[in-house]
Amino acid sequence: MWNTLIFQPLLNLLLFLYSILGRNFGLAVIVFTVLVRLLTLPFTQMQAKSAKASQAMQPKLKELEAKYRDPKDRDKMAQEQMKLYKEYGVNPLGCLVPLLIQMPIWFGLYQAIGTALPQNPLQLVNLAKHIYPSFGFLSSVVPSSLIPLNPRFLWLDLGKPDPWFIIPILTAVTMWAQQKMMSPAVSDPQQQAMSQSLELTMPFMFAWITYSAASGLGLYFVATNLVGIAQQYFTSGWGALANVLRRGAGSDTAAPAKGKGYGRKKR
Amino acid sequence: MKRRNLILALTLGLAAVLATSCASAAAAHPSWPSMAVADGILYVGSPTGRVFALQAASGAEVWRFPAATERNGKGAFLAEPLLVGSSLNIGSFDHYIYVLDANTGSQQRTMATKGPVAADAVTVDGILYVGSQDKSLYAYEAATGRKEWEFATDNWIWGKAAVGDGRVYVGSLDHKVYCVDTTGGKLWEFGTDGGIPGGVTLSGDTVFFGSMDNKVYAVDAATGAPRWTFATGHWVWGRPLVVESTVYVGSLDSTVYALDAATGASRWRFDADGMVRATPAYADGVVYAATETGSLVALEAATGRQKWTIKPGTSILTSPVVSGDTVFVATLDGTVHALDAATGVTRWSANPSTRK
Known about the structure:
The complex is a heterodimer.
Chain A: H1 2-20, H2 25-39, H3 41-56, H4 58-67, H5 74-88, H6 96-116, H7 121-130, E1 152-153, E2 156-157, H8 166-182, H9 189-212, H10 215-236, H11 241-248
Chain B: H1 2-27, E1 34-38, E2 41-45, E3 51-55, E4 61-65, E5 82-84, E6 87-91, E7 96-101, E8 107-112, E9 122-124, E10 127-131, E11 136-141, E12 147-152, E13 162-164, E14 167-171, E15 176-181, E16 186-191, E17 201-203, E18 206-210, E19 215-220, E20 226-231, E21 241-243, E22 246-251, E23 255-260, E24 266-271, E25 281-283, E26 286-290, E27 296-300, E28 306-310, E29 321-323, E30 326-330, E31 336-340, E32 346-350
Antiparallel strand pairs in B: 1-2, 2-3, 3-4, 5-6, 6-7, 7-8, 9-10, 10-11, 11-12, 13-14, 14-15, 15-16, 17-18, 18-19, 19-20, 21-22, 22-23, 23-24, 25-26, 26-27, 27-28, 29-30, 30-31, 31-32
């Protein structure tokens, strides 16, 4: 079920892109990532919309929490919260559903890129099980004739880790930037500390993954983060990243993050 | 706040799964076991980086390399062990070809390449020929390990070379089969539409091999001119086995084919229960073929009729070997099974890698 519906179509799409993009696997991974990000765009937009609405209602939620501090009023508070959610048109699970829908695609992508570049005979046997006999409408190209793929892209052998560690660094930096752009303005110090710790932990974790994994996967992470940054910019501007960039430029006039459109020139 | 925590947990979970799958992929063994039998001893190359010598009659261990006192093995041993006099030659994924004393398992010397060695070695006239994942075919003096020459191709070499009449034949994943002379000079090359992952077979004046373009090829050994091709439904990875005038070959389309060696015409076909990656074995009018789904079938060589079948494991990618009235088969988990060649009844089973 997983193989038939998710993994094999993604793997063979990747091989198809490789065949039409001058047998350049790096380019195929980048185009593949952009295509998948475009396909999941409605879900990402839903997620962003839900997050934005949820941010907007935060002050009112805080007011409710202050008003119904007594444990006896918990039920009442829950009722009021539900009213608030309705009023703002927010589904409490609104940003989780798109995330859950996208997750299988991320896993499938990850698996497809790892499988397309076998490094030993056992991995080639695995690839043989999932490759389509033909691309159907494009009968002149037989997927098998593409194997083994040319793994060279720029300075990388995409089947092996990056010897110069540039991809892990780019993965960490782009992931951090994307998270920074997405992070909402928070005044609660505890929440802020948690948010900051997450912003650092995730990039480090993914940098470590790409440090030891095939650089083709790292290239996918970098590409997907860059597309994410572009998407986020057009949805809500530079967000909290603008603060960091200003501080980096030595400006003393860094203003607190103001949510939507912050740091982005309005036309 | 709760929702944020849930997103955090999901994201960390995703990262953890990715990290785990990376780690397990790195830790997984890159190959299947390999086997060869000679003089009552079964030599087994293990994906765990050890070589074992077992009594063919009982499975009792004679020696292991590296010795049991050494905690760590070498790189995975996928190449078939090759006995030359009293020395056992076997390539490893750690880029070396090890030469061991066949009686004791002690290391005599190594020969270095620049990539993992998955290809079976072959020796003729004191020269050892072996391909490497560094894309080259090497020739070494078997007695000393001195490199004689190296012939570069454009992709990995995983298959066994064939040697005859002063010519060496080898397939490469660059889609070509090459013929070089015994000094490493290229005589001819033959291109196909797919990589050549398996070995080539020289029989008479014809070279036989399979390709990832799904075909079996027969070409003139002297000139490289094509004689015939036979199309199957998937990659042909195992080395064609030629017995008298018949070519026995498996395909990943889950079929064993018997072809006329002179014309390529089909004599019979047997539909197996899974991909046939390994080279079939032959003895006394019976062809033994293993499937990726874990079955071993014994087929009458003349008709393709099934004599018996057994399923000793979940996957068999290693070529079976026959010695006397016993057929040996190794499953992907490293377990070796000795079976009665006439009936398929198990005589003994052992996994030397897990034995203390």
